[in-house]
Amino acid sequence: MEAQRLLTIDDLLAWPGDERVELIDGEIVQRPMSRFEHGQAQTALIGQSFPLVTQRQPGGWWIVPEISVRYNEHHCPSHDLAGWRKERLPERPAGVMTVLPDWVCEILSPGHEGKDTVTHFLRLQRAGVPFYWIVSPEDRALIAYALDDGGYRALYTAEGPDETAAKVRIPPFEAIEIDLSLLFGGLG
């Protein structure tokens, strides 16, 4: 029996066609179709973090959607949102990121929850990404994790209409107030 060859970054970069794919543990995986709820949550976080994006160091961030990050030769996911502190990365980056992010946010898509809640969770924890958020538009839920002694610890959780109507300050973005109702499609 022949062992399956793990695909690499080069295979990902050479992938034919226009379909949305990413490299997960040596396998090229198709990304889910974009849905309105997913885009709404992504837009709400980008819009509310804009003061941090326009701020220079100290305190400024690079925050981008749909960004490919190379963790190793066989793992290059495309994160829904990722951010880098400008203090650590002062010049605007380009291309596939090779510098690990300071924050990643994944927005769950039906049928693909395991990738974000298990695969990415464990991979980012091992890589040492300091903050990882998981947003579930369908459940109106947010869990924010921080790396603590090599493992993720939940810093903040909100679920359901009562908890997700709040305006909160969640690490690493204590400098801004995040309106969770906007994140989950409310008018604010």
Automatic annotation (TrEMBL):
Pfam families cross-referenced by the UniProt entry: Uma2
Putative restriction endonuclease domain mapped to chain residues: 10-165
PANTHER family: SLL0198 PROTEIN-RELATED, SLL1222 PROTEIN
Name under which the protein is recorded: Putative restriction endonuclease domain-containing protein
Leader sequence segment: none
Highest taxon, organism lineage: Bacteria
